[in-house]
């Protein structure tokens, strides 16, 4: 193992323990921790001053993303259930909606965190670009660019999945 990763891997057991307690699931904690370590391997470790804090924050972000996706899926199922008797009895419409939600979720997962966050905050939580810019410490112009990139990516991925 290269020396530059040692600062991260020495926190593995602590990370698992902390997130097992928070999530009340060792399996889920291990999944999130593994995803965090994948991000560590993909990132520029030389710029990380505090590996322990970086790992915990990355794991927290992964957990938040996971629970938001679960919440969106549950909301979609509730929305479909509320469409009325005709839609409820149409398994094809239901499956199409679920497949569309899965396709959107997968396409979003391919994007950087800032793109996903801008999309979720603007489209699902109703925040303005100014509010998002303030939260992320970015210019409104950059927030707009992230949204454009995300929408283009979704359009391309959803068009590909339809063929």
Radius of gyration: 19 Å
Number of strands: 0
DSSP helix fraction: over 70%
Distance between the termini: 43 Å
By DSSP (H or I, 4+ residues per run), the number of helices equals 9
Q: Regions with pLDDT < 50 over 5+ consecutive residues?
A: none
Mean pLDDT: 80
Classify the secondary structure makeup into a structural class: mainly alpha
Element string (H = helix, E = strand):
HHHHHHHHH
Overall geometry: globular
Beta content comes to under 5%
Explain how this protein is built.
The chain is an all-alpha fold and 163 residues long. It is built from nine helices and no strands. Helix 2 (12-23) packs across helix 3 (26-42), helix 6 (91-109) crosses helix 9 (140-162) and helix 8 packs across helix 9 (140-162). It is globular.
Summarize the structure.
The chain has 163 residues and is mostly helical. The chain has helices spanning 3-9, 12-23, 26-42, 51-81, 85-88, 91-109, 113-124, 129-136, 140-162.
């Amino acid at each position: 193992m290269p020396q530059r990763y040692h600062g991260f891997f020495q926190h593995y057991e602590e990370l698992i323990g902390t997130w097992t307690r928070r999530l009340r699931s060792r399996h889920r904690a291990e999944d999130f921790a593994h995803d965090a370590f994948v991000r560590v391997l993909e990132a520029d470790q030389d710029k990380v001053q505090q590996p322990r804090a970086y790992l915990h924050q990355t794991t927290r972000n992964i957990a938040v993303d996971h629970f938001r996706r679960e919440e969106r899926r549950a909301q979609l199922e509730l929305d479909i259930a509320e469409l009325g008797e005709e839609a409820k009895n149409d398994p094809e419409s239901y499956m199409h909606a679920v497949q569309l939600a899965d396709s959107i979720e997968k396409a979003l997962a391919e994007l950087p965190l800032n793109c996903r966050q801008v999309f979720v905050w603007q489209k699902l939580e109703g925040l303005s670009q100014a509010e998002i810019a303030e939260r992320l410490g970015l210019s409104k112009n950059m927030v707009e660019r992230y949204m454009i990139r995300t929408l283009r990516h979704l359009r391309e991925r959803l068009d590909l999945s339809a063929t």
